[in-house]
Design goal:
Aminopeptidase; GNAT_dom; Acyl_CoA_acyltransferase; single chain; transferase; GCN5 family acetyltransferase; N-acetyltransferase
């Protein structure tokens, strides 16, 4: 599996990706708004889950690398929502990039390729995205992707503790029709 953008390759995971992913997951800034991967085993299990999800569904949060250098940059792609929520079942678009790659449009570029795959290849009717209500950077990515937000859709994440500041999540949506209108 491989998706190409002008600057990026979104591809299936390789064993050699586990170390740079684990290193990225140790960065407090990268993980500020994400559920922690506290150990190397947890980080490796996250990658193994993506590999399994790809095998079962034909998509996952793919490994992202630079086309120019081949450097591992993070993970971006599509994932079946794996918890009970008012909007599930659903497929979400998600991203997590190593800090050196922030602020350069890589998340938007990779997410657009993922959305194109989702809408044009597997013919999804809608894709969602969610993030902590405090995660301004991810909310900007969602807006740049043309996703719509209705505060009535915001929710408390069932896998996050009641006392955790990440509990409250914004939900954004993008329909295939809205995607097609953006692309025309």
């Amino acid at each position: 599996m491989q998706l190409l953008t002008p600057r990026l390759i979104l591809r299936s995971w390789m064993a050699s990706d586990k170390l740079p992913f684990a290193e990225m997951s140790e960065d407090a800034d990268v993980m500020e708004y994400l559920r922690p991967l506290a150990t190397r085993d947890a980080s490796d299990a996250w990658v193994d889950f993506q590999i399994s999800h790809q095998s079962s569904h034909g998509f996952c949060l793919w490994a992202v690398e630079s086309r120019a250098s081949g450097i591992f940059m993070g993970a971006v792609g599509l994932l079946c929502v794996g918890f009970v929520a008012h909007f599930a079942p659903a497929v979400e678009v998600g991203w997590r990039l190593a800090r050196p790659f922030w602020g350069q449009g890589f998340a938007v570029e990779a997410a657009r390729a993922s959305l194109q795959f989702g809408f044009e290849q597997i013919r999804l009717n809608e894709v969602v995205a969610h993030a902590s209500i405090r995660n301004v950077r991810s909310r900007r990515v969602m807006a740049r992707l043309g996703m719509s937000h209705d505060s009535a859709d915001d929710f408390d994440h069932p896998r996050i503790a009641e006392t955790d500041s990440l509990k409250r999540q914004v939900l954004c949506r993008l329909t295939r029709a809205a995607w097609a209108a953006q692309c025309s």
